[in-house]
Design brief:
- By secondary structure, the protein is mainly beta.
- It has two domains: 1-26 and 337-398, Immunoglobulin-like; 28-332, TolB, C-terminal domain (Neuraminidase, 6 Propeller), CATH 2.120.10.30.
- 2% of the residues lie in helices and 41% in strands.
- It has one helix and 34 strands.
- The strands form ten sheets. The chain has a four-stranded antiparallel beta sheet with strand order 5-4-3-28.
- The radius of gyration is 22 Å and the shape is globular.
- The two termini are 27 Å apart.
Length: 398
C-alpha cells in the first residue's frame, strides 16, 4: 500500500481517502475543553480529525509561553474555519485583567496572542468580558460573543481595525427571546446562527442574523420536528453545513440526537438513529459532523453528513479525558498542511489544501535512507503521477 509522509512530523495517512467539495478529509481539527479540577481553569485541546490514532494536543502550555501575566485560561475554545485562530477566555494577556477572564485570541501557529480590546466613546480602552461560547471568522477579522444587553443575554460582533477592534455591535436586538447564545458562523462569514429562548438552559428556537445586525429570523423551533413525531423540549447547538443545510441537536422522539435541516427545504432528518445521546454538533469544512457522544461521559465523535463512518476521536482511559466538557466544541481546517492520495484511471493524485499552495511537494522511493528527496511540484495544491511511479513517500516543505 502506498503511504504518505508529511515533513518532519512524518505523518502517515491512509490512501483510502474520500473527498468532499475538493477538500481533503484529513484537513480538519477539533477544539474542546476538559475541566482542570473545577473552577474556571480549564484544559484546552486540539485534535486532528483525519489521522488515525492522532492524540489530542494540550494547548495550555503553548498559550502560557505567549502570556506575560499570571493566571489561567478557560474554555470553551473554538477555532476559525481556516484553522488559523483560536478564541477562548484568559486572565493572562492583559495586565489589567489578572484574575479576571477576558476574551482572548491566539494564532494557531502560536506566533501571537492578544486580549480583545476596543476604545469606547469616552476614549477608554476596554477589555471584553464575554459569556458563553465565542467564535472567530476565517482570517481572524470578525468575532461574535455573548454578553448582557437589552436582553438577559445577547450576541455582539466586533471586527478588526488597523489598530485594535471596533466597538461591539449588538446583533440580537430584534430577538423576541431573553437568551441568545451559542453562535456559529456561516461558511461565507456573513451570518450567524444561534440558540434562542426564554430559559438560560433550554433553547426553544434556532435563529439567524447577519453580521451587520439585520435580517433576524427564526429558522426552526422545538415544535418543528417531522410530522407525527413526539415534540421535544429544545433545539440546540446549530451549525451550518457547507451545502447550506443546518445541523443541530434535538430531542424529537426521545433522546438527544443530531438532526439536519436540508438546504432545499422539507422536514428535518435524523442523521443517525442509533446514537440517542449525541450532543452539540459542529460541521467541519468538508461536511463531516463532530459531536459529543455521551455514554457515562462525553467523547468527541466524527461522522459523515449522512451519519456513516462514525468513530470516536478522544481516548477513554487517558488522564483528563474522563469527560469532555459539553460547553461548546470548535472545528475548522488543520493548522498544518495535510496530504491525501487518490487513484484515478491508472494514475495517482497527491492533493493538499489550497492555502498551502506555496509549499513544494517532494517524493522519495524509500525510507529511511534511500535516495535524496526529489522536488515534484511548487505553486499548486495537487500533483498527478503514473501508478507505475517509483515514488512511494511524499512530503511538503517550505
Amino acid at each position: 500500500m502506498l503511504s504518505l509522509r508529511l515533513c518532519a512530523a512524518l505523518l502517515v495517512v491512509s490512501t483510502r481517502i474520500l473527498f468532499a467539495a475538493g477538500i481533503p478529509r484529513s484537513d480538519g481539527q477539533v477544539t474542546f475543553t476538559t475541566r482542570d479540577g473545577g473552577g474556571a481553569a480549564s484544559q484546552l485541546w486540539r485534535l486532528r480529525t483525519g489521522a488515525a490514532g492522532a492524540k489530542p494536543e494540550l494547548l495550555n502550555p503553548s498559550f502560557d509561553a505567549l502570556a506575560p501575566y499570571p493566571g489561567f485560561h478557560s474554555g470553551p475554545i473554538t477555532v476559525s474555519a481556516d484553522g488559523a485562530w483560536y478564541i477562548f477566555a484568559s486572565t493572562r494577556f492583559d495586565p489589567t485583567q489578572v484574575g479576571y477572564l477576558a476574551l482572548a485570541l491566539c494564532r494557531s501557529d502560536f506566533s501571537a496572542a492578544e486580549s480583545v480590546q476596543y476604545t469606547d466613546t469616552n476614549g477608554v480602552l476596554t477589555v471584553i468580558h464575554h459569556e458563553g461560547m465565542p467564535v472567530v471568522s476565517a482570517g481572524g477579522s470578525n468575532i461574535v460573543f455573548g454578553g448582557r444587553g437589552p436582553h438577559l443575554l445577547d450576541l455582539y460582533r466586533m471586527h478588526r481595525l488597523a489598530v485594535g477592534w471596533s466597538v461591539p455591535l449588538l446583533l440580537t436586538a430584534d430577538s423576541p427571546n431573553n437568551y441568545n447564545y451559542w453562535p456559529s458562523l456561516s461558511p461565507d462569514g456573513t451570518r450567524v446562527v444561534f440558540n434562542s429562548g426564554n430559559d438560560p438552559y433550554v433553547s426553544t428556537n434556532l435563529a439567524e442574523v447577519r453580521l451587520d445586525g439585520s435580517g433576524f429570523r427564526i429558522l426552526i423551533t422545538k415544535d418543528g420536528g417531522p410530522p407525527g413525531m413526539e415534540v421535544g423540549p429544545s433545539v440546540h447547538s446549530p451549525s451550518y453545513g457547507p451545502d447550506g443545510s443546518l445541523v443541530f441537536e434535538a430531542e424529537w422522539g426521545g433522546g438527544e440526537t443530531v438532526w439536519r435541516l436540508p438546504a432545499g427545504g422539507g422536514p428535518p432528518v435524523k442523521v443517525r438513529a442509533d446514537f440517542n445521546n449525541d450532543n452539540s454538533p459542529v460541521v467541519l469544512p468538508d461536511g463531516r459532523i463532530v459531536s459529543l457522544l455521551e455514554g457515562g461521559f462525553h467523547q468527541v465523535k466524527v461522522m459523515d453528513l449522512d451519519g456513516q463512518n462514525a468513530r470516536v476521536l478522544t481516548p477513554q482511559d487517558a488522564p483528563g479525558f474522563s469527560d469532555v466538557a459539553d460547553i461548546g466544541v470548535g472545528c475548522g481546517a488543520l493548522w498544518v498542511p495535510s496530504l491525501d492520495l487518490q487513484a484515478d484511471a491508472g494514475e495517482l493524485e497527491v492533493v493538499w489544501p489550497v492555502r498551502f499552495g506555496s509549499y513544494t511537494l517532494q517524493g522519495v522511493v524509500s525510507l529511511p535512507g534511500g535516495r535524496a528527496w526529489s522536488n515534484l511540484a511548487t505553486g499548486t495544491n495537487s500533483f498527478r503521477l503514473p501508478g507505475t511511479s517509483p515514488f512511494r513517500f511524499f512530503r511538503l516543505v517550505r
